[in-house]
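Quick start: read one record
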Amino acid sequence: MNGKLRNFTGKIGDSLQIPKDLSYGESVLTLTGSRELYIENYKCIRKYEDTCILLLSPQNRIQIEGSGLMIDYYTDVEMKITGTICKISFF
């Protein structure tokens, strides 16, 4: 979906009070302290190491940095990452 169409779809979703993750196709990250991270709406895992996990999302790349990082589970819609999370970057 190109940028203009996505923006238009998002604005319609805003007017209908649809959650932004659905209307804009954004990822949802839920961080519990610095030890657990739930990610919803991602595309694929690009890099998986115990110090860095790189994911592709519909909008950008998500890089999680820390130590002892581990993907506890993943499905085609969500995943759970545990370990000591020090930094989350979007680019």
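The beta strands are 28-32, 36-40, 44-48, 52-56, 61-74, 78-90.
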